[in-house]
Write a structure and sequence with these properties.
Length: about 220
Amino acid sequence: MIRVPEPERMDLPSEAEAYAAADFSDVNQAFVERLLVLTQPRKTAVALDLGTGPADIPNRLTPLCPGWRIVAVDASYAMLRIAGTRCSKAVALVLADAKTLPFPDNSFNIVFSNSILHHINEVSLFWKELHRIAAQKCLIFLRDLFRPSSKEEAWTIVQKYSGNESQTLKEEFFRSLLAAYTPQEVRQQLQTAGLSDLVVDLASDRHMDIWGIIKK
């Protein structure tokens, strides 16, 4: 199935509110647990969350990682408004595009993201920017959807995992699956970007993990 791009930002308040109201607790907790396994034994870090949404993942991390300074970025003002009402004061919220981040080179030693890549259409700019802001030996951990083989398979996944959510969220999920990249496409992106040390693994029947240590 050919990729069908979707808008990079959830700018509409109704979309942001539907996303923030959905129950991603199990998915987000699994993400946090995997991230903490990968980052051991780092007690202190300057960490960046790309595409933070309502900032649920940074909120889960702050009590577990008191030595981390966490910066959470999203390109949607509507989403960050929601995050601001929920977010721990220990998390710095920044409105920015992940392809043009307002940070100096080598700023972070942990970069993580849950479900940003399928929103990105100019992926070469995204990977270049990630490489730029990552310090030497930075740990990268991205988890994202991967594209099913057909629209029918995509809709089956939607029904399986969001059957009790709003119709708005179901439609968003369906569009996200169609906009996702395949693991092979991501491996080719990493090869082109000079990031072939990063590994692409399947994490579930709909998610893939992209992780590893940046070497400069």
